[in-house]
């Protein structure tokens, strides 16, 4: 019998890019947040051997470059499994959208394969295989709100945040992540535009180390806001009655977290900047590019407000869907 599982998307609540490491990856700091929008993965075991990827979406690779193939291949070896593994991918998430679609697909394929086989990898082996295949995969082994460091593959569960309505703007644009990183490197060595900082035109943009330090301060400010905090902070964390503000997720975004990719992706694709502005004008408490894009999301106080914002995006010609962030408990309850 085929095993069918959802494959959820993620958004990035802030993303800071550091210097290039010795292994060729950029050092990153980000907060991942899983959301309810998802693909569906079905895995079945049949007679024979090998791995077969099936999908009606022509953008999905059906060869060994597919992340599902690469993860299942490693799991087959680790569990010494026999038979032919068939992975069916029902796509609803955009390809190259910054929502971690392929990464989530791979983890769901891994979990579905284990169930179909009747054997399970250890937690350590799952994380090892996930990190070998891609930077975004390990976060989907945790779910909810997750701190990502290293090149994104080193993950730690953060205090679980309550679910919040979310609008995903999905422009029909494919953003190349490698090019976005290259553009970021160019931006870091580029002099600041004349007039941006009067009298300092010869200075260069802030070095990557500065953005990493800023992120660490932002996250520390949020985590240090415990239930006994009294008074108000400019970070947005408040405890008028003793404790956090009405929504801890908003406490986090009020610290000033940003996505560094916006600095280089928006100039290349100004329509993405307009989607963000449209979400903000529609009442989003926070709006941002997810990953390197092209998806842009907005967080809203109510489902009704989110629905109105999505309708406005659709009217201006941008695909949009209303979804919700997922707590860790909600995430794993769906598997």
Task: Give the arrangement of secondary structure elements.
Blueprint: E1 3-20, E2 26-46, E3 51-54, H1 67-79, E4 84-90, H2 101-117, H3 123-133, E5 145-149, E6 154-157, E7 165-170, H4 177-188, H5 208-223, E8 231-232, E9 238-239, H6 248-253, H7 262-268, H8 270-281, E10 286-289, E11 296-299, H9 303-315, E12 319-324, H10 328-333
Parallel strand pairs: 3-4
Antiparallel strand pairs: 1-2, 2-4, 2-5, 5-6, 7-11, 7-12, 8-9, 10-11
In short:
The chain is an alpha+beta fold. It is built from 10 helices and 12 strands. Strands 1, 2, 3, 4, 5 and 6 form a 6-stranded mixed β-sheet that branches. It has a 4-stranded antiparallel β-sheet with strand order 10-11-7-12, with helices on one face. Strands 8-9 form a two-stranded antiparallel ribbon.
């Amino acid at each position: 019998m085929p095993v069918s599982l959802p494959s959820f998307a993620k958004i990035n609540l802030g993303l800071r890019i550091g210097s290039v490491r010795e292994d060729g990856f950029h050092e990153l700091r980000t907060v991942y947040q899983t959301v309810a929008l998802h693909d569906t993965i079905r895995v079945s075991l049949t007679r024979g051997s090998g791995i077969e990827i099936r999908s009606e979406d022509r953008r999905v690779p059906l060869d060994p470059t597919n992340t599902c193939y690469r993860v299942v291949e490693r799991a087959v070896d680790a569990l010494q499994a026999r038979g032919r593994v068939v992975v069916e991918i029902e796509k609803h998430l955009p390809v190259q959208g910054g929502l971690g679609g392929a990464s989530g697909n791979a983890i769901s394929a891994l979990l579905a394969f284990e169930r179909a086989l009747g054997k399970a990898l250890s937690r350590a082996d799952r994380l090892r295989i996930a990190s070998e295949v891609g930077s975004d995969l390990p976060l989907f082994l945790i779910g909810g709100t997750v701190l990502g460091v290293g090149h994104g593959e080193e993950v730690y569960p953060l205090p679980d945040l309550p679910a919040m309505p979310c609008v995903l703007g999905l422009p029909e644009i494919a953003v190349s992540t490698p090019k976005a990183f290259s553009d970021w490197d160019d931006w870091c060595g580029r002099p600041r535009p004349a007039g941006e900082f009067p009298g300092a035109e010869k200075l260069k943009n802030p070095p990557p180390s500065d953005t990493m330090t800023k992120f660490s301060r932002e996250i520390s400010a949020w985590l240090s806001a415990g239930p006994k905090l009294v008074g108000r902070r400019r970070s947005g964390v408040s405890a008028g009655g003793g404790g956090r503000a009405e929504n801890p997720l908003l406490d986090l975004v009020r610290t000033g977290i940003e996505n560094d990719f916006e600095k280089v992706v928006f100039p290349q694709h100004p329509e993405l900047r307009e989607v963000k502005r449209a979400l903000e004008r529609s009442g989003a408490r926070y709006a941002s590019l997810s990953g390197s894009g092209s998806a842009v999301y907005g967080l809203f106080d109510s489902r009704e407000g989110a629905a109105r914002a999505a309708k406005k995006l659709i009217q201006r010609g941008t695909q949009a869907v209303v979804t919700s962030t997922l707590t860790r408990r909600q995430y794993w309850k769906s598997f």
